[in-house]
UniProtKB/TrEMBL annotation:
Reaction(s) catalysed (UniProt annotation): P(1),P(4)-bis(5'-adenosyl) tetraphosphate + H2O = 2 ADP + 2 H(+)
SUPFAM superfamilies: Metallo-dependent phosphatases
UniProt-recorded Gene Ontology molecular function terms: bis(5'-nucleosyl)-tetraphosphatase (symmetrical) activity
Domain Calcineurin-like phosphoesterase: 5-121
Name of the gene this protein is made from: apaH
Protein name: Bis(5'-nucleosyl)-tetraphosphatase, symmetrical
Source organism of this protein record: Franzmannia pantelleriensis
UniProt similarity note: Belongs to the Ap4A hydrolase family.
Sequence intervals crossing the membrane: none
């Protein structure tokens, strides 16, 4: 049995199938973790959803910001952006079961020392606290008020976690930390403007993985294609798996038992 984690698919279905073939992935015995953002930007978002859904219990995934955007458009009244490639999903005959399945997915998964999130793990949160906070959002997505939550989910404020936050402000910080985080300051406040490489950090901010933690999880994450799979000067064990397939880079899997990385090139210009 092999255990792999894969970075952001973002609609790169052909590359995903090629990577699974390269891994000789067998859903009967192997396991696959996906670090979120199955959809959007690439041409095969619907096929990616169907492919992962068909893997059943062999696959575990976390929600990324683009996955939540799809849910917000489909069920929260948000508008499509010009760069979105979600039309095929929204028009698909199997749209509702696929969206139901996606909406049930977590923001974080953990197994032993391994923790998988989409964007990162806020240093101010212990692993048990992070999983409990993720569960608050997951419960809201599974509840009757999911549509209202998806309508209010967007926003950059508040930018910093506080234990006394409640309501939509509390949930928004949790979502942003798990799905949008790149640079933070020493207090854990998020910057939302800088989205490029490490040299784009605003004054007083650094990548979240350069801040020490009190615990020592092995963190698997995606989201940040500009890192090109590297976390230089990390103060925590963090594996960046988004290697920019949708931007012409590559799609990368990591064998979670051996640490070996296997990549296939993008088929996009």
């Amino acid at each position: 049995m092999a255990h792999y984690a894969v970075g952001d698919l973002q609609g790169c279905h052909r590359e995903f199938v090629t990577l699974l073939d390269r891994l000789a992935f067998d859903p009967a015995v192997d396991r696959l973790w996906l670090a979120g953002d199955l959809v959007n930007r690439g041409p095969g978002s619907l096929d990616c959803l169907r492919e992962v859904h068909a893997l059943g219990d062999a696959a575990r995934l976390v929600l990324g910001n683009h996955d939540l955007h799809l849910l917000a458009v489909a069920r929260g009244g948000a508008r499509l952006k010009p760069s979105d490639t979600l039309d095929a999903i929204l028009a698909a005959a199997d749209r509702e079961p696929l969206l139901d399945w996606l909406q049930q997915q977590p923001l974080a998964v953990a197994e032993g020392e391994l923790v998988m999130v989409h964007a990162g793990l806020l240093p101010q949160w212990s692993c048990p606290q992070a999983l409990a906070l993720a569960a608050e959002v997951e419960a809201r997505l599974a509840g009757q008020g999911a549509g209202a939550f998806l309508e209010q989910m967007y926003g950059n404020w508040p930018a910093c976690w506080r234990d006394d936050l409640d309501g939509i402000e509390r949930l928004r910080v949790i979502v942003n930390a798990f799905t949008r985080m790149r640079f933070i300051d020493v207090d854990g406040c998020l910057d939302f403007a800088a989205k490029e490489g490490l040299d784009s950090a605003p004054a007083g901010f650094a990548p979240w993985f350069r801040y020490p933690r009190r615990d020592d999880p092995h963190i698997i994450f995606g989201h940040w294609a500009a890192l090109e799979g590297c976390t230089p000067d990390a103060q925590v064990r963090a594996e960046a798996l988004d290697t920019g397939c949708v931007w012409g880079g590559r799609l990368t899997a990591m064998n979670l038992d051996s640490g070996e990385r296997i990549s296939v090139p993008s088929q996009r210009r």
